Amino acid sequence: MLYYAVITALLATMLLALVRAILGPSVYDRVLAVNMIGTKTVLLLAVVSFLYGRPDFLDLALAYALINFIGVLAVLEFFRSRAMREAAEAAEED
Amino acid sequence: MDGLLDIVSWLLLTTGGVFVFIGGVGALRMPNLYTRMHAASITDSIGPILIIAGVMLQAGFTLPIVKLAAILLFLLLTGPTASNALASAALLAGTKPGGSKTPAGED
Questions:
Q1: How many Å lie between the alpha carbon of B100 and the closest alpha carbon of chain A?
Q2: The domain spanning residue A13 has which CATH number?
Q3: Would you list the domain boundaries of chain B?
Q4: Are B51 and A5 in contact (CB < 8 Å)?
Q5: Count of A–B CB contacts within 8 Å?
Q6: Tell me, what's the ipTM?
Q7: Biggest alpha carbon distance in chain B?
């Protein structure tokens, strides 16, 4: 009973972020939504581990927090280098 | 002991859930990228603080409380860093911070 309100809020927020990820419009909105979903997943894992009384879920949450951060930074670096390459190519054509 | 602790824990969890949900609504309904980022990144900091504090009260003095503290520390370090990287990447790619409306010609 203690945890159901916060679990509902987390799931609803993940749904809203998923709608934002589908709507876009730019790639950065999608990265933002994915980052939000990742943070909420970590919180959901932490709450669920206490709901079911299984503390080993906390290790998963810890690993997921790190992987989420690295993943977001990697995706951003990828799109940043692509944007810079396209800008350099456009400057050469001018 | 259990009654008071449960009440405080429930309050923290529910307040955290409300903040997180407000952040989700803001990320969906705000008009442009930077305002969406504002809504999402602020609630990404206050939500974990409240929710993990609420869960910590249920854990007692055991090993899980250390893991929860580590999770909170990582989230507080990485959340703003990711938001900063996202904002600077978007700015470098040419997304202008607009006014209350999305600039004409984009979207």
A1: 17
A2: 1.10.287
A3: 2-88
A4: no
A5: 146
A6: 0.82
A7: 61
